[in-house]
Design brief:
Distance between the termini: 67 Å
Largest sheet: 5 strands, mixed
Strand content: 15-25%
Radius of gyration: 31 Å
Shape: globular
Helix content: 40-55%
Number of strands: 21
CATH topology of the largest domain: Hypothetical protein af1432
Strand order of the largest sheet: 1-4-7-6-5
Number of domains: 5
Length: 727
Amino acid sequence: MNDHQAVKRPYVVEELAKELPLDNFKNVIALCSRENPGKGKNLVLKALAFAHKHHAGQTRRSGEQYITHPIAAAEILAGDLGLSDPELIAAAILHDIVEDVPGLNLHDIQRLFGKNVAAFVDGCTKFKLSRMKASQSKDLTYQKMVLMASKHPEILLIKMADRMHNMETLGALQESRRQRIAQETMEVYAPLAAKLNLFTFKRRLYHLSLQQRFPKKSKRLMGMLNKLMESREVKEMKSGFEAVCAELPFPVTVKARLKTLWSLYSPAKKTLERENAENMVDFTIILHTDVIPECYRVLGMVNQLYPPVPKSIRDYIANPKVNGYQSLHVRISCKDRKYLVKIRNREMNQVAQRGVLLHWDDKEMFREYRQMISDALKNIGEFEGSPAGRKNLFGQLSQEQEIFVYTPRGDIEYLPQGSVVLDFAYKVHTSLGDRCKYAWVNNLRVSPGYQLSDGDMVKIVTDQKVLGVGPGFEQICKTPKARNAVNKYLQKRRRVHAIKIGWDFLLQEMNRHGISINLLYSPSMSNFLIYKNFDSLDDLFESVGQDIVQPREILWEMASILSQTGKRVMEKKGVRNFINISRVEPGVHKFSRCCKPLPGLENTVATLSKRGVSFHRDHCREYMASSSYSADKILDVYWDLASVWRNALKFKLFLKGKTVGECLKVMADIPHGVTLHQIEQTGNEGKGVTMLVTLIGFNASKTFFESFEQRDFYPVIEAYGRDSINF
C-alpha cells in the first residue's frame, strides 16, 4: 500500500479489528469515519494507516502490539478530553514514529501530514546523542519540549496522554524502571498537567505515581480514605448541604470528592502521610442558575451550618484566576476534621472541569491564559542552570496553596504560598522585577526577599537601573518567572566575568609564547572561529574563561598560522597563569568549603567553570585528588588590595569549636572597613560561633582574616552578598 494513496476506512478498520479490541478506541475510530468535504483525505484515518504499517512487528514489554500505545494516547485525547482536532489526533497517533521507526524523519511527516503535525511530533521526540550523559540528554529533551510547546501547546496535550497511558500500563517493566518513570511523572508531567488546568489528569498522574513509589503505604492510606468517604459524617454533611439548598428556586447538585494520594504527599519532605493532608474530602455545590449573586447566598447558608475557618474564604468569582476559573472557596471544620467547600454555577463548573480545553479551537478565548502558559514554558525552557534547577521550576507549576496580595490600585495578584516581594514584582511586570529596590508592604519598608502573606498590600519602589540579585533568590523565589529572571541575570554576570578572564588568560599564554595580539584579528583566526562555531571573539574568550576551550587549542592554531610565515612559537615553561580580582560577586565567585579560602589572603588559587570562579588554597589536597584536577588549569589569584568595593558585602562566617568570648578577643581591634553586625554561639558550648560582618575591600578583609589565622582560628564563609537574603 502506497503511503501517498488514500486508505479506505473499512479496510483499515477491518485490519485493525483482526489484531486489536477496537471497542477500546471507539472515539478515534469515530473520527476516522468523519467526512472532510473539500479538505481531502481524512487525516486521522491516514495517520492510523501510516502508523499501523510502520509500527508493524513492534511490541511493547507486555507483549502487546506497539500500535496499541499511540492509538490509546489518541483515544485519551478524543475520549477523556473530548478533543477532535484532526491534526492533534493524527500527531498523537504518530508521536513515537520518528523516534522508533528507522528510516523515517520529520521531513516525511511534514510531506505527508503537514507542518503542524510535524511540529507536534517533533516536540514529542526525544534527544538521542550517543556521546551525551543520560541526565544531559533528558534535560535537553525537556528543554526542547517546553520551548516548542510554548508555541504549540498541543505538544503538551499529546505528552500528557502519552504519559497517562504509560503510567496505566507499567506492570511489565522492572521495579527500578517503574520507580524512575513514576518519579519523573511527579517531577515533570503532573505539574505540566496542573498548568494546563487539567486537574483530573494531574490528580490521576500523581495518584498512579505515588502508588508506584509507595506501594504498601498507598494501599493502606487509600483504604482509610475510602472508609472516610463512606462514613456517616461525610454522608450527613452532604445531606445537610442538600437540605439547606432545597429551598432555592432552582436545582442544586452537591458532590463529595475524595482526595487522591497527592493530597497526602509532601514534596518538601518526600513523605506520604495522613498528616500531610489539609483536608481529605471536598464538597462542590453546583447551582443550576446563571444568577451569580445566588452563589454568595449559598455561601451564607453553608456558613450558618458550619462556621468558616478564619481567613479561609476565597472569592474567585469577583477575582477570577487567569485561566478563567471562578468559584467561592471556604474551609469548614466538622468533628475536628477540615473540609473544603466550593460553590459555583453550571458555567463556572464547566470551566473548572475543562478549563482552556472548553474553548480549545477558539484562539481568542482565554488568550491571556494561553499567553501565561507560553510565558511559563519559556521561563522553564530558557533556564540555563542545572537539570535539577529546571525540575524545580517544573515542580512549582503544581503548587496548589496560594496567597493573594493587593497592588496599590486594589487589584489582586495570586501567588504561590511562600512567595517574596520579588515574585510579586515580576508577576506584575518584568521591568518592575528587574529594577526592584525595596517595597512597602502594609506601609512597612521591606527588602525584595521579604515573604508575603495573605491580604498584604504591596507597593514596589524601583531604581532607574537594573539591580543585581544574589544567588540566594534562586532558592527563595517561588514563581518560575522570578527564578528564571534571577538565573538569567546570574548567567549574564558570569558571561561578563568569563569574557574578561578568558581574554586575560589567553593574552598571558600568547605573551608567554611570543605571539602577537594582532594574530587574534587575522583572517585565519576568523576561519578558526567559524570552525569552532563561535560567533565572535567574545564567545571564544567566554569559553576559555569557563574552561570549555583550553588556550593550547588556540595556540596550536596560531602555531599553524605562524609556521606558514616561517615564524616559530617560543614557549616559556614553569610559569603559571594568574587572575586579578578587584571585587568578588555572589553567583560568580565561590569560596570552596574543602580548604576554607578567604578573600585577601595569599596563596590562593582559582579554577574556572560555567558556574564561575572557585577559590582554593594552593595546598588543597581534596581538590588535587579530584578527577577534574589538572595543574595547567590552576590560576594564581592576585587580590587588588588597593580597591574599595562599590558595594560593601556582608559575610556569614562560621568558626568551628570556638566560643563567642574567644572570637571577641581576636576582634578587640576591629580594623577600618570591617563592621560586626552579629555574633552568636551555634548549638552547644564549643560547637562553634556564627558571625555576620561587613567588609568594604580586600585590604580590610586581609587584615581581618589574618588576625584570626594567626591564632589558628579558621573561619569558613557560609554565604556572602549585598543582602542578607543570600544567607
